[in-house]
């Protein structure tokens, strides 16, 4: 009777995560496509591994060993697309994927180099895990081309991806050494353990993507009065004083506040730091620094303050449902809206509406 190897089960889960990821809205189409491609490559790799070791299809060895070289580049490029302008990405994508394709094909064309393929795969995992860590260390402001609400969640996923690549590095080295020492049983055990790890990662991705669909966890609260009816859109006060805040930062925050009030850009769910900075004709880093200095919070939290204030106004003056207000206030999801609103106003949207109705009555 045919059995279903763990790599095949991992393939199914990775394929499901791939489909969900394709529908995820992070404010950048190219990044979403690259992340989806990375999951697709992982799914294909686990499928080929299962067919090779579960059903003895040795004809797939060459392709199965080439695929891992594409995982690191695709994951890194996905995050890079969130930190660079669109026009800078085509050369970067071609360069990284071109090198990966060359590293995968040359050993197949020159059999004498095939023993070095395992070393190339290990080096790829290590290099791209390091690049992800460097990008992560640059902070939230590095992801200037991601939807502001998605940035905190994306940074968590960046660390998760880095950890996954390092784990794959360890397993790949262990499997290669086991085969070199002709310990086939130990190698198969490591393959099974690696499949369990990938299954856990795929299940986690499915749970998160299915719950949020288009809503990574938002950042913490924006500074605002918790008094019912307080309008943070009109007068968010600087957190610093004239002595410890750069006057240029005060002026830039004031300009950002006026722009948001006038244009209501905060109602755009896909608003990015780069887009907001371009509207103000300043570098994204300068805007981020100004908000941090004057409001003691990042830009994502700052913009969410305007969104929450807009929602509070709708709760107090309309009969719209919470779902409708969530959609009309620029939040990515209802759960995201509830978290932000409760942090800022100290109560749920429904409780806030009840308070306002009692005051009006």
Describe this entry's structure for a reader.
Helix content is 70%, strand content 0%. It folds into two domains: 6-212, Rhopdopsin 7-helix transmembrane proteins (Up-down Bundle), CATH 1.20.1070; 247-360, Homeodomain-like (Arc Repressor Mutant, subunit A, Orthogonal Bundle), CATH 1.10.10. Helix 4 (68-80) packs antiparallel against helix 5 (89-109), helix 12 (299-317) packs across helix 14 (334-345) and helix 12 (299-317) crosses helix 15. With 361 residues, the chain is mainly α.
In summary, what is this structure?
With 361 residues, the protein is mostly helical. Helices cover 70% and strands 0% of the residues.
Low-confidence blocks of residues? 214-243
CATH class of the largest domain: Mainly Alpha
Mean pLDDT over the residues: 83
> Over the alpha carbons, how many angstroms does the gyration radius reach?
24 Å
